[in-house]
Specification:
The chain is α/β, with parallel strands linked by helices. An 8-stranded mixed β-sheet has the order 6-5-7-8-12-13-4-14, sandwiched between helices. It has a 3-stranded antiparallel β-sheet with strand order 9-10-11. The chain is about 30% helix and about 20% strand. It is built from 11 helices and 15 strands. It folds into 2 domains: about 325 residues, no CATH class; about 45 residues. α10 crosses α11. The two termini are about 30 Å apart. The protein binds flavin-adenine dinucleotide and iron/sulfur cluster (2 copies). Flavin-adenine dinucleotide binds next to α4, β5, β7 and β12.
Length: about 375
Amino acid sequence: MQVKGSKEIRAGVLDSGLCTGCGACVSLCPYYATHKGKTVMHFSCTREEGRCHAHCPRAEVNLDRISSQFFGEEYSASPFGSYINIHSARAGDKAGVSGFQTAGTVSALIKFALEKGYIDSAVLTKNEEGFGVPFVIDNPGDVEKASGSRYSVSPTVKGVNDAINSGRRKIGAVGTPCQTLAVAQLRGNPLKQEGFTDPIALSIGLFCTWALTASDFTALMKSMGDISTIRKLDIPPPPASSMEIETGNKSYIIPLDDIRKLIPEACSYCHDMTAEFADISVGVYEGKTKQNIAIIRTERGRKIFEEAVNAGYLETEKIPEEAIAPLAAASMNKKKKGLGKLAGANLINSETGHTVIRMKKSTLESILKGGASCC
Ligand SMILES: Cc1cc2nc3c(=O)[nH]c(=O)nc-3n(C[C@H](O)[C@H](O)[C@H](O)COP(=O)(O)OP(=O)(O)OC[C@H]3O[C@@H](n4cnc5c(N)ncnc54)[C@H](O)[C@@H]3O)c2cc1C
Ligand code: SF4
Ligand code: SF4
């Protein structure tokens, strides 16, 4: 991995339509800022190697190195990346959470981890005037203030940097796959800083197919009325093909074809659907509205998940293999599309110019041909 500086971020990421708006480069120095879901660089600095480049999920991400670091094995061609097991889960009564998006597994896990001291703070994403913004909490009672999904691009990892800057350690971070990848880069101490200790005690990833350009999506919402009255915003799994919005006294259905026009180009290069570098990844269980699918990836994730189940914060059910197959197919499809597009633009293992991903050539070829089976 070759760490570079802000000049390369400007040319290779910001000006090339690759920026995911994750916020990982913001709050590290005075040069970057985020406004209404968009990351901007005021000036380039003269550093040859910067944390902005080292943590960016769109600059020199070495999948084999990160995978070896977290899972003790190279990145493979499997649909979900490395994992220990997969469960169907939902928030249990003991968690006492409400207002969640799918079945409350994420909110319940964060609340449990805060109450039991596995984490001392958490970086979540709340809604502020229609935009997703980072929300750093220290109190389990604040988890529900950020429950539910903000479907617009949100600079959540700025919140992780803010939490670290304020001296917080044992942080819990919740994020989409691009945000989780940036957090994984940060955890790997790519600049080999002396005395570094991993500030992240629990990383929870959300499944993600795409997000929406924040300013366009907020404008669409505002065109429907007062966005402060939105109670629920959901994209039901197929065969439904719409976004459902409930406000104080009305409900709206927007065809997904209209919503898809608001997806930023950056998402079309994305190969990760299930947040492959989280401790636990959580998403929708297609066909079961009151359940999440949870992929347990690390020993740390397994311990916290199992203890949350034993304490009644989570309820789980066995998940049959055939229920995982549609997710595996969707995930593999996203890998093929994202990595295929990156490869077509010479952004994988490039010897000259900007590289987004470094990975074994044989693994890339295997994924582009269809990858390995899931279970
Ligand atoms: C942009 C986006 C796209 C998604 N696409 C899919 C998909 O294609 N398939 C699928 O199965 N699931 C998808 N999800 C995940 C899904 O919406 C739920 O978050 C997941 O099922 C967990 O449900 P829950 O009830 O446990 O979440 P909750 O308990 O409601 O917790 C949700 C957590 O998500 C965090 N959050 C909300 N918005 C954001 C954001 N923009 N960035 C980072 N964190 C955020 C909140 O802080 C909260 O902690 C997506 C989520 C987002 C944010
Ligand atoms: S770190 Fe995130 S926000 Fe910053 S340039 Fe990279 S992708 Fe964009
Ligand atoms: S599709 Fe990928 S790049 Fe876009 S928001 Fe989701 S994880 Fe980030």
